Each structure stands twice: as structure tokens, then as C-alpha cells.
Amino acid sequence: MNTAPMILLILVGLVLVFGVGVVVYNRRQAASQQSLEAPPAVAVKEVVATQEVIAEESAPPVAVVVDEPEPEPTTGAVRRFARAAGIFNGSFAVLRGKDKITSETWDELEETLLRADVGLKTTTALLDTLKSRVGRKDISTPQELLDALQSEMAGQLSSNSRELQFDSSVKMPNIWLFVGVNGVGKTTTIGKVAFAQKALGRSVLLAAGDTFRAAAGEQLETWAQRAEVPIVRGNEGGDPSAVIFDAVQSAAANNRELVLGDTAGRLQNKSNLMEELKKVRRVAEKEAGTVTEVLLVIDATTGQNGLSQAEQFALATNVTGVVLTKLDGSAKGGIVFAIETQLGIPVKLVGLGETIGVLVPFDPEEYVRELFAEA
Amino acid sequence: MFDNLSSRFESILKKVRGKGRLTEADVDEVLSEIRAALLDADVNVGVVRTVVARIREAAIGAELSQALDPGQQVVKIVSQELTAMLGGETLKISYASKPPTVVLMAGLQGSGKTTSAAKLARWFKSQGRHPLLVGADLQRPAAVEQLRTLGKQIDVPVFSEPGDPVTTATRGLAEARRIGKDVLIVDTAGRLSIDADLMDEIRRISDAVTPNYTFLVIDAMTGQDAVNTAEAFHNTLAIDGVILSKLDGDARGGAALSVKEVIGRPIAFAATGEKLDAFEQFHPDRMAGRILGMGDMLTLIEQAESVFEKEEAEKAAAKLFEGDFTLDDFLDQLQQVKKMGSMSSIMGMIPGMPKAAKGAEIDDDMLKVTEAIIRSMTKEERRQPEIINGSRRTRIAKGSGTTVPDINKLVKQFTEMQKMMKRMGGMAALSGGKANKKGKPGKVNPIKMAKAMREMGLSDLAGPGGGMKGFPPPGKNPSGIPSEGFPDFRDFR
Q1: pLDDT in tens, B429-483
Q2: Same structural domain for residues A52 and A176?
Q3: Could you give the CA distance from residue B264 to residue B85 in angstroms, rounded to a whole number?
Q4: pLDDT below 70 — which residues of chain B?
Q5: Cβ-based contacts under 8 A for chains A and B
Q6: Closest partner residue to B464 among A13, A28, A117, by Cβ?
Q7: Residue A297 sits in which domain range?
Q8: Which chain A residues contact residue B421 at CB under 8 A?
Q9: Counting C-beta atoms within 10 Å of the first and last residue's C-beta, which end of chain B has fewer, N or C?
Q10: Cβ neighbours of residue B251 closer than 8 Å, sequence gap 6 or more
Q11: What CATH number has the domain bearing residue A148?
């Protein structure tokens, strides 16, 4: 019998148990003694992304948030979203045509919700409510059942305010931070928000707080150029809170109203990175400026992990809203339903593609309709 | 990695383990819980349906085995189904007889293609190959810039030119031939599977470079849509394997479980961290073990073997069992363990750990405090911690940025550990054979040792929240996985 592996395992086990055991204890001791750190001085250069920054102030304010090529933005959004519909629910029409609610009907409803990533717990709760209504003979046909489900879902969603918070009475500038896991579309979303906010007549400045990912700064700078807004960048690998701090100072000095702060994508279970994010939020408000929005960006393809994302990011940074991106694909983003109903964080915006204009306000009723839409 | 799923399975299967008789109600209960666990883990609804049906059939139709009680049989069936779902064997890369071997990366936006391309290039390099990266993502701003930066970090050249992605890919292939690179990795723009134009574009890229391997990059956090995406890409490109990204998060990775079932292609690689070396080949059978909370000792041992110097390790172990193990030795071993990867990934491979480790947040900074304390000690103090008195304690605490109670705690734990290991060494030497008077670890009987470790309550050392439960005892192996010559740690307790 080869015992070499055994020795290695013992050593590894030893190091882990002993090394980590002491630290867990230490952590708990140290948890309360957090120091307030001054933002370290990092060389930050302000890049004015366009030659015509001055011209922007005279741009006519546009009422709509989106610059949608199609006449009615909402219809456009529906159409984009609807491209994906029908992939999974062809049999739904059949059930709807029947006049009796059978166990098949329930299975079909459950499967539709599950496939949209609504999650088992939320789905079961929703269907249980309806089952008791069917038991009371409130509902008797599949069509009624479907309508009841939709209004139930929309009803659970609609109580939250979905306005983006901008307040000119607070210490200026307003700061909106964008947080989320890797690859959800934070940088792209900032580009779109910058464009929309500028169209509303607000003076915007971008802060390239993702100093970790290679070329994230370049990517945001491209968006700054497209939206024709200035950007503050730091060094790759530098301290993100220093970049945000400097951006806020720069905005305050130049009377800019709104700073959009990018942050590096991070998985919510990396405690050191979540600590870093807490610091970014603290430091952003250290002198000038008020954080009025912390927007969690969630990818519509995200599954049940989205709930854990929302929980952890909310704990770290007090998230004020969700941006649901990539809803133009085949994913339905049903996890936002659990996020809204369980954590009370409203979905504020929906991203529908990579072009600069396609970011629309979230409409609960339309969204629920699309979950069950048939192509 | 898959932690939540494994702790769910552990508690579900605990209910039937050891049961002498399973009623149909028992089976139903277990199945409904397995269904819930899989759905919560984002396994595709359709896949869940098939798998649950298969488990039911097998569980009910199973012949009464002599060796296993019905509870163990269910565990075995579930384990087999999971392994099958994950894709059986590890994908073996075979290289093109006429280089370069071409690899095409495809996937949705933000799934991690660019980072995975660089990680894959680094992996090929570690296999002695000479890769060239091609940046054919000309859509996302600064994507090529990102690839170039990553290429620099791993010292792999990057080819790209503005304009058309198909042309860039073709020229990249020519460039690889010209400069004699034997692996070509083509990064492409993220695209939605329902975007007909872009799907057509990637098909043309594929036609132009005729890849030996087309990898679909899927985010471990993906939900039900993963199978739609996989199917659509598979129909367009004929996928050879999946690269599962962001597996270091707390996602349960059900997407991974579904894809093989739907497109019949295995997960080839998994990215397990932000660093470029956090990338490994995916072993489905081992992963099934991890999911069932049986740990993954094979990978752990492989990783340990790759970083530890064999002789050094044996020397350290010998010292350990003789009670001569000093804090200096500990520090040396710590450096080795750190090379094995992130703490959480190591923890995940130890049987019984995922659940225990959940209470304590494990990350790589945790060992730093311990390390700082030891490094703040003098040579003499490290050899003989008992000489550490009040003023020494204050000095060490200051030096390491900790407090005096921390130092006390560390010294106390270390002394306890030393005592325990010495006792264990003695015991192992007694039972392991008379020849090794000095407790030579080479002759130690591992089964006895594991038992001893457990009996001596290794868990007491773990400190608050650290709760490692020690190694499970050897015993019957209901999982049906061969145990390859060391005590069967994958067994259930």
C-alpha cells in the first residue's frame, strides 16, 4: 500500500486545521475594529473623452430614457424580448384551449415557471395560492388560471418604486455605483445609462473603478466616447476606491451632477472583494457627493444563484435596485421575481442588447406577460 | 464549488443510509428532495425529470444486494446517475498530426471566453505546447486589448487585426503556421444563440479555421437557459466540450450537470478562480463524489503530489510523529499547501469538509494571520514556544498586528497538536509494524492512523467555526467507486 499520499494528506489537513482555526478566531476578534481608511493617493488622470464636452450642456433634454429607433420603445422591447418566447411553451396553447384544470395543467405551469428560472420555492408558493383558489371554485378554466397567475405575479412585483434616484438637494454630485458578479454587463450598462442620463440633461462623469480586469478601463473609455461624457481613470491594479474618490472630487470641482461608478466584477462569496466594495462605497461619500443609487447588475441567464448574489451584494453595499441585462436572449431572468419578492429590491432597468440606446424601464406587467408569451 | 448541492445531498441521503428496509414512501420522499435539490442547483427541468425517473426505476427495480443495505443502494444509484450526468470520462486532448491544433472558443456575452482563452493557452503551455491566441472579438470594446494584456501575463503571443473576424481568424491560422505555433486558440465575440447573423458569422469562422476542438464557455451561475444555449451552439458548430467558468462562486453548477445530458458533450475544463492558473481539466467522476459530499481525494492527492517535495514531506511527517515538529516546519508546510490553490478549493476536496467549512468563511487571507504571528517570533521561540512569556507575547502581537490572546491561542493549539501527533505517531508505529522504531511514516498503517486522528478529535483543534471533522473511518464502499489503495475516504460516515 502506498502511504505517501497519506502523509501529504495529513500535512495538508494539519496546515488547514491549524492555520485556519486560529484565524477564524482572530477574525471574530477583529470584526468590530474596522478602521476608516483615507483614500490612498493614486495617480489618476482625467481624460476628457470628447472634444465637445461644452457642447453637451446645450443639447436639448429628451424626455424618454431611451433612444429607440422604433416609434414606441416599449413595443420595441416587447418584440425583442418576444423573439425568445415560444421556445418552451408550445404546449401551453393546447392546455389553454381545454376547459378543465387537470394535474397536467399544474405541471405545465410549474414547468414554465421553473424554466424561466423563477425557482422551486417561489413557484410552489405561487401555485399553492392558486390551488386553494381553484379549490374554492374561484377559478375553473385553464385560461382563468393563467390570468390569475399573471395578475398574482404582477401584483407581487408592482409595489416598489422603480425611479432612478437623483436628488439635487443632497451633497453633490449624486453617485450611482454599479456592482455585480463578473461578466453581467456592468460596463456596457454604465455606457447606456450615461447616454440616457445625458439625454435627460444631466452632466455625467464616468469613474473607471474596475482596475482589476485587463482593459476594463479601455472598454469604459470607449463607452465614454460614444456617450460623449468625461471619464476618470486610474492605474490598472490600483485602488478602486481611490479612483471613485478622485472622480467624485473632480465632478464636484467641475460642477458635474452625476458620477457613474464602475466596479470590478466579483463573486459574492469572496469576502475580501466584498470588503473592498464596502470600502468603495464608504470612500465615495467621504468628502463631496452622495451615493443615491447602488445598482446590482444581473444577467438574465442567471439561475438560482442570483438570489445569493442579491443577498450578498445588498449586505455589502445596500443595493437600491437591479438592472436586468441580456433580456434579448432566450433567458427569462425569472430569478428577479424571487429577488423582488424575497428581498424587496426593485428591478429598475432592463438591458436589451449591446447598442447604446437599448435600456428600458422595467414594467412588471409586461414582464410577467412575456414569461408566458407564445410566439 | 458545488458546495451547496453537496450539503443538500448529504442531508438527503443521510435519511436512507443504513436503513434496512425502504418503503415506497421512503423512496418517494428521497426522490422529491433530490428533485428539489437539483432544481435549486439550476439543473434543467427536463434533465431533472429524466434523472429522477431513472433513479426511481433503478431504486425500485434493484435486486437485493448481499453487500449493501437498501439505503446504501440508493446512495450508489444516485452516485452513478450523477456521474453519468456529468459526462463519464475526462476529455482527453489529442493533438492534430499536422499542427496547429485549432481551438475555437464560443459562448454568450460575459460567459468568460476571453479569460478562459488565456487560461487555456496557459494550460497548453504547461503541457509543453506553444500556443498562439487570436483575438477575433472585434465587437466588444477593448476585448482584444484585454486578450493582449492577458497574453503578456502568460507570455503567449496574441494575433489580431481590426476589420472582419473571419478574416482575422484565417490570418491568425496562417500566422501560427508561419511562426511555428502548434496550438491556435481563437477567441470570438459573445453572441446570443438566437442572433441568426452572429451565429452565421461564427459558423463562417469555424469553417475558415476548421477547429479540432470547439469549446462552449458556460458560466457556472447560468440557470435553465444553459441547455437552450448549448443546443443552439451545438447545432451550429458541433461543440466538442464545455468550459465551465466562474466555478469558484457559490453557484451550484447545475448548468454543468445539464449540458452533457442535452448535447452529449462533456465538460472539458473548469475555471476555479480569478488567477490565470486557476483552471483545471474536469473529471466528472470525481466531481460526482464532490457533489455527494464524498470529497475528491484523488485531485487533492494529485495536487499535493505536484507541490510537495516527497522527501521533505516524509521528513516533516517523521518529525511530526516524533513530536519534533516546530513552528518553522509548520511554516514550511504552509508554503507548500498555499501552492495547491485557494483554501476553499482544497477544503472542498476533503470529505465531509464542505458542510463544516460553510460556517467559517474560508479565503486565502485566513492563513496570513497565522503566518504573520509565526513570522513575528524569533527562531528560538519557533523552536520552543513554551519560552514565550508575557513580554515576548506583547512583542509578537505588536509585530504581527494581532492581540495577546491570539498569540496564546496559537501557542496553545500548537502544543496540543504536537502532543496529539506524537501520541498518534506512537500508536501508528505500534500497529504499523515493528521495523519502524522511529515511527517512520513510510510504514504507518493509514487505516489505523485515520481512525486515530478521528478518535483524538482533530476537530477540537479547528477552533470556532473551523470544525473539520477529521477523516471519516474506513469501511464499506457503497459508492462503487474504486478506492485505489488508500483508505476509502469517500465512504459515508
Answers
A1: 554 444 344 434 444 444 444 444 444 433 333 333 333 333 333 333 333 333 3
A2: yes
A3: 9
A4: 1-7, 17-21, 61-72, 87-88, 285-286, 288-308, 341-345, 347-366, 424-493
A5: 293
A6: A28
A7: 45-69+166-371
A8: 14
A9: C
A10: A303, A305, A308, B42, B220, B221
A11: 1.20.120.140
